Structure formats: C-alpha cells, structure tokens
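Now for one record.
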Amino acid sequence: MDPVLRRMRFIDRMARIYETKLWYPIVLNVYGGFQSPSFEELLKIVTQKVQPIEGRVLDVACGPGTYGRRIASPSKEVFGIDVSLGMLRQGAAYVAKEGNPHVHFARARVEALPFEDGFFDATLCCGSLHLFADTLAALREMARVMKPRAVLSVFTFGAGRGGILRFRRVRERSLRHHGLHVFELAEMQQYLTASGFENFQPEMSGSILTFSARKPAD
C-alpha cells in the first residue's frame, strides 16, 4: 500500500480520539519528554500568539479544529484545511455540537491552498509541519495567503533534550520510515527566512518546539 494512503487511513481512524487522553498526552510525553507542556498548556501557548488579532485565521492541517475552534469568535473567522476527511468530519461534528458559526472546514493541501494572496490575518500550524514532504513549499504557500505583518503560530517537534526524539538515531529513523522531520532551531530559522518570514521567536520544552514568526510589512 502507498505510504501516504496508509498514513491517511490511520489519521482518519484516530480522529475520534485525537482530543482525548489516548492521543495528545501520550504523544507529548513519549516524543517530547516529561518537560513537555500538557495538552492544555500547549493550546494556551499556541493560541495566545494570535489572541489579540482580529480577522481571518487559517488553521493549516487543522485536524478536527483542535486549535482553531478554541479561538473562533465574532472577531476571528477560522478557516481550517486538512486532507483527512475523517478529521474534517469530526471537526464538523464538534462545531455543530458547540454551536460556533465562526469555524469553516475545507479539504485542501497545504502546498496548494484555495485562497487568494494576502487573505489571512494570522495562521496556525499545529502538530503537522514535521509531516509535510516539502517544508519550504508549505511555508511559502502559507506566507502567500497571509497579509503583511500577519502572525504565524506553530507547534512542531525540535531536536531537544526530552523524549525519544532527543536521540539522533530515533530522529533519523523517524524521518526515513515515517516522514517525521524533527527540526534543528537553526534549520527552522533558515526555512522561515527562505519562505519570507521574519522575527522567529522559538520556545523549546523537551523536544516540543513552539514558535511564532511574522510576514514582513510591504
């Protein structure tokens, strides 16, 4: 079976447990180590970077809208995109239950976002940047649809001192067999600069990397 299709089937199946104790706490502790933030802390770290912003927010590889749903409001219209129908359907079910009309979902790839240039005031990319086949292409496409001065807020994995990702051989094997790219800070800086972002502000907790960056003013 095609590795991408196999991964997609796995992602579709895990949609219902994605926001439960069966997923995030385990992943954070195993991959990031016990210095990692809790799920609740991670949500706060990522979303507070875009909290003051009003307007349209892109949620890239949104899953069931885990992050975007929590900031959507009359002042923030959230547009979540993902390639997993299972995740999108679960997100739609959550939105219907929560009664939040300010979240919208669409199936799309990060490399070909269905939005015009300069459409968004902020972008979230949480738990997915390390899985994109072409990091630079993904970041460039995010930058394209963002307005000047728009903020990018990201959670991904970094080569830190916690969890199984602190071991170089584990990182190499994860990339080779699972397509999981664990970023060095200097490497992430280079990707952001090359894709048109500035003001890289990283924070490492174990091997959990959160950061913000900004699209420059015209």
